[in-house]
Specification:
- The chain has three domains: about 100 residues, Helix Hairpins (Orthogonal Bundle), CATH 1.10.287.70; about 120 residues, NAD(P)-binding Rossmann-like Domain (Rossmann fold, 3-Layer(aba) Sandwich), CATH 3.40.50.720; about 70 residues, Regulator of K+ conductance, C-terminal domain (Alpha-Beta Plaits), CATH 3.30.70.1450.
- It starts with a helix and ends with a helix.
- About 55% of the residues lie in helices and about 15% in strands.
- Helix 7 packs parallel to helix 8 and helix 9 crosses helix 10.
- The longest helix is centred in the first third of the chain and has 48 residues.
- It is of the alpha/beta class.
- It contains 13 helices and ten strands.
């Protein structure tokens, strides 16, 4: 509403100045017997109060008309200058206040995600994060226009170079749980990984790599997972030919547009009621209507666990099911 009022003042001043020019042109043309161009010229120099030169009011009526139009035009010009100044100053203040408010909210974030780069890969991350209300993310990019265009008003961002320590610290790197490096430059992603690990050794880093040779360097730098979009895209195209139904199913599960089914990772804590219980005893599929896809135990993946498989402390369970059923299952397994 305030922005609309500020712009309305500017529009009003433009309309008033235009009306004054038309009235002045007609008045001077009538009283001074001038052609329309000369009458407009005389009106402009009167309205802008720049002083008379080659063209001046000569008749008595023309001078009286000028006496009337000068104070009115001064008021209109002053109003227009004030409207423009208001747009500039209040716009800058509004931006400053919005940035300060966002900074305060970012400073309060914990266990959030930091996404470096908002290109095509970064936008896919944004789409997925946006579909998960429990996820909070801070996006970093040097292109302010791209950030404003892609992000909504309640989403966090920082304009700057993600390879700089201060920018990462502004995004709360010390308190973040995950960093996603999606910059197109492999060198930048390696540098971001090194910097992030130096500030927060416990942070989980997923990085993009254009070349396979860079993947090893990124893992050495501290990246837990390295993704090559070109390689994945090529493999998916081949799989779409060989196993189209399987690819379609996985796309449906992983798509941010289809939230009815999902895959989640659930940690079995040492005091969980599920510890020591087998899948058969718990009857997970019938009771919770979810499927245990695999169990990650001591770095090894137990795929399609048998019914007599017992849960152990610190197991990571990969579960598939409907969103509401997954929520119920997570509450049941958590002490």
């Amino acid at each position: 509403m305030k922005n609309r009022q500020r712009y309305q003042h500017l529009i009003n001043s433009i309309v008033a100045m235009s009306a004054m020019c038309i009235i002045g042109m007609i008045g001077f043309s009538y009283f001074e017997n001038l052609n329309l161009f000369d009458a407009l010229w005389l009106t402009i120099i009167t309205v802008l109060t720049v002083g008379y030169g080659d063209t001046i009011p000569v008749t008595h009526n023309g001078k009286v008309f000028a006496l009337v139009i000068i104070p009115i035009s001064v008021g209109i010009v002053s109003y227009a200058i004030g409207a423009v100044a208001s747009l500039v100053v209040e716009g800058e203040l509004s931006t400053s206040m919005r940035e300060r408010k966002m900074k305060n909210k970012i400073d309060q974030l914990e266990n959030h995600i930091i996404v470096c780069g908002l290109g095509r890969v970064g936008e896919q991350v944004l789409e997925y994060v946006r579909g998960r209300q429990e996820m909070q993310a801070v996006f970093i990019d040097q292109q302010e226009e791209a950030l404003h265009k892609a992000l909504q008003a309640d989403e966090f961002f920082i304009v700057g170079d993600a390879t700089e320590d201060d920018i990462l610290k502004s995004a709360g790197i010390e308190r973040a749980s995950t960093l996603v490096a999606t910059l197109p430059s492999d060198a930048d992603n390696v540098f971001i990984t090194l910097t992030a690990k130096g500030i927060n050794p416990d942070i989980y880093i997923v990085s993009r790599a254009q070349r396979e040779a860079t993947a090893t360097k990124l893992k050495t730098a501290g990246a837990a997972k390295v993704i090559n979009p070109s390689s994945i895209g090529g493999k998916q195209m081949v799989m779409s030919i060989l196993k189209p139904l399987s690819v379609r199913y996985m796309d449906l599960v992983l798509s941010a547009d289809h939230q009815e089914y999902s895959i989640e990772e659930v940690l079995v804590q040492s005091d969980s009621p599920f510890v020591g219980q087998s899948l058969k005893t718990l009857d997970i599929r019938n009771v919770y209507h979810v499927t245990i896809v695999a169990i990650l135990r001591n770095g090894y993946l137990v795929g399609t666990p048998k019914s007599d498989e017992k849960f152990q402390p610190h197991d990571k369970i990969i579960v598939f099911g409907a969103e509401e059923n997954l929520t119920v299952f997570e509450k049941a397994i958590t002490p």
